[in-house]
């Protein structure tokens, strides 16, 4: 069985594949790697929403892979993050970091986000060509999460390289090497924060551990790595995909340009239309499970696709077209249930501030290449552009 999820066509545009599969069955058996490995891909909205909260679908990857030889050398801090745990372990770990991403905490960050966006836009040419991925979508969330964690400015470009390498589809050695590099870096940074305390989120986690919370040293490093990577990867894709959607749909763009205040209400629809996460992180069935009309045996991977679910025509009318007037608040781009993205309020704030400032500063913004020439990242988990060339006037 070939793996369609790694084909160049899928990585470039997965939506026709999702549509075809969903029309056949919203939960379908697919190849999940080389050889005979297979699992189930969830493309229907109702089925995906149910799967996100089904306790029979575990995220405990260590339990799933116990005793299996994979030939991989992924660092434990990356292999076993909070995303790869079930309650009560997941509940305990999430509680320790939730307060850093509440709406109130994000509101206090808005001036810094606005300042960072302004600085990045100042660096773009007033009348010329620019890449909005490298010029805005990448550096904004990296800068914000690195500031929250206390990562020095001089290290941020390297952190971004390691993070990008962690999602290198079909390149396990590159992924494994990056996992060790970023975990080693965060372990060293934690030690530096112990020697020189500051007001960073990372130091807050160190303090929590040393005040008696059940947070081991390995868990501390793992949380730091997760916050670093998850804190910017999806937001980078969110911003890039949202700008592209606006530039490809004149009516939507005109609405945003004529009334920048509407951008805030468009964010959910932009997330629904081209979700930054193509396939959610790993789950597997702990027992035989019925999902929709499909019987899933015990012990197999179950892949949930928020991107596919968000384009399910049984949930959204004309899902392949973005509609500024659509109420898309039920989208699954951030997941659903107890594993829903912790950083959703921060991602929404960064995207809203960035899009509003970008369209205000550059009212003539337009694509510099035909859409078919755009390059997409080679990862099935993330849905994001490698670059977004635009003319600023």
Topology:
Layout: H1 8-12, H2 15-24, E1 27-31, E2 38-42, H3 45-53, E3 57-58, H4 61-65, H5 76-79, H6 89-98, H7 103-122, E4 129-131, H8 132-137, H9 139-149, H10 156-165, H11 172-195, H12 201-210, H13 217-230, H14 233-248, H15 250-258, H16 263-273, E5 284-285, E6 289-291, E7 294-296, E8 302-304, H17 306-309, H18 344-361, E9 366-367, E10 389-391
Parallel strand pairs: 2-8
Antiparallel strand pairs: 1-2, 3-5, 4-10, 6-7, 9-10
The gyration radius over C-alpha positions equals 21 Å
> How many separate domains make up the residues?
1
Name the average pLDDT. 91
Low-confidence stretches: none
Strand portion, in percent? Answer: 5-15%
Helical percentage: 40-55%
Q: What would the CATH topology be? A: Cytochrome p450
| Terminal Cα span | 49 Å
CATH domain class: Mainly Alpha
Main sheet summary: 3 strands, mixed
**Which second-level CATH architecture applies?**
Orthogonal Bundle
The gist of it:
The protein has helices at residues 8-12, 15-24, 45-53, 61-65, 76-79, 89-98, 103-122, 132-137, 139-149, 156-165, 172-195, 201-210, 217-230, 233-248, 250-258, 263-273, 306-309, 344-361, and strands spanning 27-31, 38-42, 57-58, 129-131, 284-285, 289-291, 294-296, 302-304, 366-367, 389-391. The protein is mainly alpha-helical. The chain has a 3-stranded mixed β-sheet with strand order 1-2-8. The chain has a 3-stranded antiparallel β-sheet with strand order 4-10-9. It has a two-stranded antiparallel sheet with strand order 3-5.
């Amino acid at each position: 069985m070939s793996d369609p999820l790694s084909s160049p066509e899928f990585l470039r545009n997965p939506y026709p594949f999702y549509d075809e599969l969903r029309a056949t069955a919203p939960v379908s058996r697919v190849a999940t790697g080389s050889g005979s490995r297979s699992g189930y891909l969830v493309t229907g909205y109702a089925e995906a929403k149910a799967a996100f909260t089904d306790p029979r679908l575990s995220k405990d990857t260590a339990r799933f892979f116990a005793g299996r030889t994979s030939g991989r050398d992924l660092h434990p801090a990356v292999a076993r993050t909070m995303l790869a745990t079930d309650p009560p372990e997941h509940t305990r770990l999430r509680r320790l970091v939730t307060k850093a991403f509440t709406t109130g905490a994000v509101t206090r960050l808005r001036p810094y986000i606005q300042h960072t966006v302004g600085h990045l836009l100042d660096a773009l040419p007033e009348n010329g060509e620019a890449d909005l991925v490298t010029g805005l979508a990448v550096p904004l969330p990296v800068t914000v999460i690195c500031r929250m964690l206390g990562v020095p400015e001089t290290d941020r470009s390297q952190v971004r390289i390691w993070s990008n390498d962690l999602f290198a589809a079909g390149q396990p050695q590159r992924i494994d090497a990056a996992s060790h590099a970023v975990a080693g870096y965060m372990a060293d940074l934690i030690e530096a924060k112990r020697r020189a305390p500051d007001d960073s989120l990372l130091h807050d986690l160190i303090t929590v551990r040393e005040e008696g919370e059940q947070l081991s040293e390995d868990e501390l490093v793992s949380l730091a790595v997760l916050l670093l990577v998850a804190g910017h990867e999806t937001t980078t894709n969110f911003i890039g995909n949202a700008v592209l959607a606006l530039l490809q749909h004149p009516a939507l763009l005109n609405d945003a340009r004529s009334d920048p205040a509407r951008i805030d209400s468009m964010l959910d629809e932009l997330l629904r239309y081209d979700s930054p996460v193509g396939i959610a992180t790993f789950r597997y069935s702990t027992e035989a499970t019925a999902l929709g009309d499909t019987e899933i045996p015990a012990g197999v991977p179950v892949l949930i696709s928020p991107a596919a679910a968000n384009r399910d025509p049984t949930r959204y009318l004309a899902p392949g077209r973005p509609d500024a007037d659509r109420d898309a608040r039920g989208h699954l781009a951030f997941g659903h249930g107890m594993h829903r993205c912790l950083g959703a309020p921060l991602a929404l704030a960064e995207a809203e501030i960035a899009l509003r400032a970008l369209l205000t500063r550059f009212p003539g913004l337009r694509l510099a290449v035909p859409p078919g020439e755009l390059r997409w990242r080679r990862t099935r988990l993330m849905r994001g552009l490698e670059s977004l060339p635009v003319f600023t006037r």
